[in-house]
Amino acid sequence: MIHIVFEQANVAVLQQAMELDEALQGEVVEIKDDYAVGPLLNIYETEGYQARRDWWKTLLEYSPYTDSLNIVDDKLAVHQLLKAIDEQPEQELWIWMGQNAHDVCSYYWLMSQLKEYQGRVQVLYLNNLPFINEKGNIFYPTHLHEIQPKEFRKAMRLARPITLSEFEVDPDEWKKLCQENAMVRFLEGGKKITGKEVDFYDKDIFANLNGAMKLGKLLNTTLGKMKVQTGDTFLVWRIRELAAEGKLEIAGDWNKGWKEIIVKLPGTGAVVTETAEEEQG
């Protein structure tokens, strides 16, 4: 079997689970893009694909991940997947999906290209299912990597084939989302995704901005407290956009990276310096 996951952290935990259970043995492939944010119009065409890459290039500028654009090639990953299952008739694809917009959108993007392999594509969706955490308590994971490796034996029992009906309905749902082309997508529940405005996460940024803060601290605080997660690169892009709109003030040299940037609300009187940030602790 070939396991497909949608986050780097999921790769490591699944490989650990394989060491505990031979029944899970197989190649792990990561779909790297986060299809829960950004443009999707004509995503399967050259023009739409390039527009998305150009958008990501803007986001990754000045970030610690400037090389990421060159290693993210999901089109190639799918090409290699299809080649593998064409050459090996016994091979199955197992798609692992947590209850979050990132995974569900990536599932839609991927499965829409797999209809002719119906019967050989399994999905494992951790949808409102309880697991045991490291402290022995029951919890409901939203991401695959939150599960202990030893719990994957239970998780793999969830595997079921993607039905012919799903191969008919789900790509149509995804097509609507692509045509809507919202910049943020939100998981309502189940596999129901709705488009949101680009400012959807702005409230989290403002709620966690206290005086003049280093960008790194603002990111860590926001990501740690927000109920609906997104990536740090998207949040930084929004901070830059808000600064361009005059809703935030920024000091520092972007060319020196995120660690040099300090953010504050305009007109707060806070001194936008490293000293001010350090005084706040």
UniProtKB/TrEMBL annotation:
Pfam entry (one): DUF1835
Boundaries of every DUF3658 domain copy: 157-254
The name this protein goes by in its record: DUF1835 domain-containing protein
Residue ranges of every copy of the DUF1835 domain listed in the record: 2-123
Top-level taxonomic group: Bacteria
Organism of derivation: Hydrobacter penzbergensis
